[in-house]
Specification:
alpha/beta; 5-stranded parallel sheet; 7 strands; about 10% strand; elongated
Length: about 350
């Protein structure tokens, strides 16, 4: 009886074990994907691999030509912008860097600054007239000189900046500024109504003012009677105009002959201080030059303000000018050479 009970329990346990195995096997079979499903997964995985491989191939091809084209356009635009900014710093090309006008307060301050300096010529010693466009109009230049002579009461000297520059270029014995001017020459325009030459910004301002000043001093030594000077084709830049009025003398007027270009910076600059005038509107009077009195030793004897006649061996031009001065005639007109002066005196004496 005892053994039968044991056998029944064993049999019952085995039966449960068999049922459990069968249930596990059936569950596994139900949850395990079939062959077709597994095939789809494999196919999908392969497709994903192909897409990734195709993308990697595209990346290995590198950028397209259009990208280089776009980079070239952008780079060119940036380069052009940088060049324009650099040019804006060039005072020889950029109007923004030039002084084109002055307020009333700035002009008064400039006069104060000028008063602190000792100018080469005081306003009572000589008058200077600027003619920035003095080329190709000899007739009007002659009219200007005759006006400034004020009825033969004053002697007028003329200085042409173009001639001074030509002398520096063509000097056979070498010139002080010839090499410097040639190395900084930017362009030449012989048809221009003003200065024929333009120079780069590397040329420091003041050289042309120095040339003009040296010529004025030379003429004053040769012709001490000169009281007015016409400066043709000068100033050629605003910087030179400022330099002249800082170191040499305060200009009297800037005279327009009617051949000036529009939007002339130099004319606009002087127009702000009311110094610009047309030739037809110019009115002048006799200029009385103040002569500095110098102490004379009593041992030197009496002196006379009247000019002494030239010696017998003096040059013919000196004798001719002395005679013209006695007759009340200008000792030299615009454009006259020494021989022209002598011939004019000869014709006058024949008529008399």
């Amino acid at each position: 009886m005892f053994s039968r009970g044991i056998l029944q329990r064993v049999t019952s346990n085995e039966l449960k074990s068999v049922i459990t195995k069968r249930s596990l096997t059936s569950t596994t079979l139900r949850t395990t994907p079939k062959f077709n499903s597994k095939s789809k997964l494999i196919t999908q995985f392969n497709q994903e691999q192909k897409r990734g491989y195709a993308w990697s191939n595209k990346r290995d091809e590198g950028p397209k030509a259009r990208y280089f084209f776009l980079i070239g356009i952008v780079g060119t635009a940036i380069f052009a912008l940088v060049v324009s900014k650099v040019d804006a710093q060039d005072p020889a090309k950029s109007l923004a860097k030039k002084k084109n006008s002055m307020s009333e307060e700035e002009w008064e301050q400039q006069l104060i600054n000028l008063g602190r300096k000792t100018l080469a010529f005081k306003p009572t010693e000589a008058e200077f007239y600027f003619v920035p466009n003095g080329c190709n109009n000899d007739k009007k230049v002659k009219q200007l000189v005759e006006k400034l002579e004020a009825g033969n009461d004053n002697s007028v000297g003329t200085i042409d900046l173009n001639e001074l520059i030509d002398e520096q270029f063509n000097s056979e014995n070498g010139s002080k500024y010839g090499a410097l001017l040639k190395s900084t020459l930017d362009s030449t325009d012989l048809k221009s109504n003003g200065c024929h030459y333009k120079f780069s910004y590397k040329l420091a301002p003041g050289i042309f003012t120095k040339l003009v000043y040296n010529k004025v001093v030379s003429l004053r030594k040769e012709h001490p009677e000169y009281t007015r000077f016409v400066l043709l084709n000068y100033p050629n830049t605003i910087q030179e105009a400022v330099k002249f009025e800082q170191d040499v003398a305060v200009s009297k007027k800037l005279v327009l002959l009617g051949t000036e270009e529009k939007d002339n910076d130099i004319v606009e600059y002087f127009n702000t201080v009311d110094k610009v005038i047309k030739l037809e509107q110019l009115q002048v009077e006799k200029f009385e030059r103040a002569v500095a009195s110098t102490p004379v030793s009593s041992a030197a004897g009496p002196t006379s303000d009247k000019e002494q006649p030239p010696a017998d061996d003096a040059p013919a031009i000196k004798k001719a000018q002395y005679k013209l001065r006695e007759l009340g005639e200008p000792i030299r007109r615009y454009g006259e050479t020494d021989q022209d002066v002598i011939d004019r005196l000869t014709e006058m004496l024949k008529k008399n």
